[in-house]
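Readers of this paper often ask what the protein records in our data store actually look like. An entry from our holdings is shown next, in its original layout:
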Amino acid sequence: MDLTVIIPCKDHHRRLVKLLETIPQNVAVIVVENNSKHPVEQLNNYLESTFPNVKTYISHAKGPGGARNLGMEVLETEWFTFADADDLFLPNFSDALKLYDDEVEADLIAFPPMVTMAGRQDLNQKLMADLKQLMTAPHLQDYRAKWVVPWSRFYRKSIVVEHELIFQDLEISEDVSFAMQYNVYAKRILFSELVIYLNQVGKKSRYSDLSSSQIVMDTEVRRWQAKFVFEKYGIKLWRYPFYSKIRFALQQAKKSHHIKIFWQLLQILFQSTDREG
């Protein structure tokens, strides 16, 4: 399969090099610098001279969404995938490229991700269990609405072009709208059991550093996007039981050390239930 990896990058340059070392040289790579604190011209020259399959670009968008949009504009292959600069591809990535060719009958190929997070050794088991349930036919619509991370999936450029799909230029939750809309437009979803990607969530990750107000905004953006999908495609989203919503609100309030977050999140979550059935 001819595939391009699109990587938005802001400051994670050492880890970016480690990521590039995990990508086979027959895979095209687009690195889009996005508001790094230091000049990047010398770095880009180094990357292109060290990795012959890498092309570099510079974006001045607010967040990684705009950088990904630039990557999608310039890619030359029909199939592409996304990676974060501080993550890694796993050896199964090469196996997936050999297993699927350009003519595979699918609009989206979904792979289960592996995630590392301090103190959460159980996270991968939960993700795998959730994904396997969503992959079964009765829950396929739930997959379209709930699996909204952009990485660990192969996309078709023709779907993006036909439906004019882009990432919103937001600092957080910029991936939700794109992933949800692509899920809906992808009529043929192929699920693979190969684990090809390692998402490394550290203590200094972008999401772990959100302020209490950003957590609320992030949740509101996700709720709004869910409402968009519901209204446009009639997908029933909010099937979480009562106690799950309360537990989620408590977890976020504890993380932000602010009880106000608990009440704000409850209002958002239960408003969405009233509006969307």
About this structure: Residues 272-277 have pLDDT under 50 and may be disordered. The first helix runs from residue 13 to 21. The first strand starts at residue 3 and ends at 9.
